[in-house]
Amino acid sequence: MSVKVLGIYGSPRKGGNTDLLLDRILEGAQAAGAEVESIYARKLKISGCIECGSCDDTGECAVHDDMDTVYPLLQEADVIFLASPNFFYNVTAQVKLLIDRSQAMWSKKLLEKTPEQRRKYDGGKGYLICVGATKGKNLFVGVELTAKYFFDALDMSYEGGLLLDRIEAKGEIKKHPDALEQSFNLGKSAIESMKS
Known about the structure:
By secondary structure, the chain is an alpha/beta fold. It has a single domain (4-195), classed as Flavodoxin domain (Rossmann fold). Helices cover 41% and strands 18% of the residues. It has seven helices and five strands. It has a five-stranded parallel β-sheet, with helices on both faces. Helix 6 (141-153) links the parallel strand 4 and strand 5 (156-164). Helix 1 packs across helix 7.
């Protein structure tokens, strides 16, 4: 069984900490035999959801931009790794645009599944990778809720992931080889769990 993996790079900063962590995760996934695709939110030209309600009837977004290339990847993936630095206790604006526009996928799910069927996730598994500069106990509460409901819209279960605090400077994660090894192992184990 071939597992399709999608890595979503959510940082506006190329080569930053979440980029490096997601690189390792995807290497681990490939080592376990997964087919890997990547999206860089910072490269996408996406407008925000205009809340027109069109997707309520069709399950498709009425706005056409780079999201047109993203929807098929979201639908085909068995596993999604969403990586973002923590900006004001949430994901970055770049990835939040992508998440908001996934309302169309939520609408599609409502149209295609009964309330009973919606209790079970058929779309696969989602993981969050997030790095924050501070150490407050609520640092990851907002970002985790956003990720959880993003994956819910995609008909995927939220499986947790890697949440690292007190890391800020670009490339600082390189000083934490244990975190990079953990990332590789997360990518590998996520695929192995899909195959078992």
